[in-house]
Amino acid sequence: MLPAPRYLTSFIREDLKSKMVFLGGPRQVGKTMLSLQCLGEKPEKENHPAYLNWDDLGNRDRILKGHLPSKQSVVILDEIHKFSDWRNMVKGLYDRHRSKVSFLVTGSARLDYYRRGGDSLQGRYHYYHLHPMSLNEISDEASAGDLKQLMKFGGFPEPLLRGEERFLRRWQREQSTRVIYEDLRDLENVREISKLEWLLQHLPDCVGSPLSVNSLSKLLGVANETVEKWITILERLYMVYRIAPFGSKKIRAVKKEQKLYLWDWSRVSDTGIRFENLVAGQLLKYCHFLEDTEGYEMELRYIRDTDKREVDFVVLKEGAPSFAVECKTGERNISPHTRYFRERTEVPKFYQVHMGEEDYGSETVDTRVLPFLRFCQELKMP
Questions:
Q1: Angle at CA 89, nearest 5°, toward 83 and 95?
Q2: CB neighbours (10 Å) of residue 346?
Q3: CA distance readout (Å), 210 to 119, 223, 237, 305, 373
Q4: What is the mean pLDDT of the chain?
Q5: CB within 8 A of 238, min separation 6: which ones?
Q6: For 308-323, what is each residue's pLDDT tens digit?
Q7: Per-residue model confidence (pLDDT) at position 42
Q8: Is 9-129 CATH 3.30.70.1400?
Q9: Domain range list for the chain
C-alpha cells in the first residue's frame, strides 16, 4: 500500500497540466514517492518507464540522447541537476515535447540556485519546496503522542514511520555521508571535505543562537570566507537554513546576526532547542507553501535587539509582519519580551507555543499562550 499523498501532490498534478514543475528538498524527504504519486497510478520507481534517474547509467544515456519513454504523459527527471548543462537540456526537451508530455524535475539540492546561468527557464516551470512531515500531515487530529514522535524522530518519512532509535542513528549517518560524498562531489568544488564534514557535525550545537562565523573559523582553522561558503553550500543541499533578524525601525534591532536551523531537527540534542528547531521547520514550511501555491512573498525572520531581548520568529507576508511566535517547552508565564516588542513593533499578533495543554491570553491584545498542536491546527499549517 502506498502512503497517503503528501501535502503538495494535488497542487503539482494541477500545475503539470500547463507547465514543468521543479521539486526541490532534502535527500530522502519523499520527493520520489510524491513524484510517482503524481503519475496517478501505483508505480514502483525501479521499473516505471516514466521515472528517469540521472544517477542510473542506463537512464542517463536515454536522457542525453533525448529518448523519452513512449505513451507517458508525465516524465520524471530525477537528480538531473547534476549534469552541468541540465538547464539547456530540460529547456530543449520541454520545448520539443510540451504538447504531449509534462515534466517533473526533482533534486536533493536547490534547483532554483542550480538553474542559474545559460538559457533561461523562466516562465516554463513552477517551483515547489518539499518539507519533512509535520503534525497535520501525520493526522488530521494529531495528538500529543504524535508531537512526541515528531520531536524524537524528526519529519523525514522513513525514520519517523519506523520509530526506532537505532534505525534513526544509522539513517542520519548514511544520509550525511551521501550528501557530503555524493551530492557535494557532483555539484560543488570543495577540497577540504573532511573539515566541511566536521562543520556539519558541529552545527547542531549552533542551532537557535546567533551564528558566529568567526568562532567556527577558529574551530576549523579556516578563513571566515571559507566557513561562509561552506554553510551556503549546506543550505543549497537542504541540510541547514538561516533566518535574518527583523529590523523594525522602532527598536534597536540587530542587523547582521543570523540564526541557523537544521532540516532534520532530530539531530539537535537539547530538548528545548530541538522544539524551537521543529517550530522553525513548521513555519518555514508554511512560508514556502504560501509562496509555492499562492504566489505570496513570504519570509521567516526573528526579533532581537541590541539588549538581547528576543522573540524566536516573525512571519512576513508581502514584506509586512503577519505574526510572531515564541517557543517554550513548558506551560510558562508570558514572556516579557513578547510584551516589550508588541509595544514597539507593528507585529499584529503574538503567540507563545508550548508542548503542554494550557491555552490562555489573546494574540491580538497581549500574547496568546497555546499548545503547538492547536497553533498548527488553527493556522491551518500544511
A1: 155
A2: 10
A3: 38, 19, 21, 12, 27
A4: 90
A5: 24, 25, 26, 27, 29, 108, 109, 110, 263
A6: 999 999 999 999 999 9
A7: 60
A8: no
A9: 9-129, 135-378
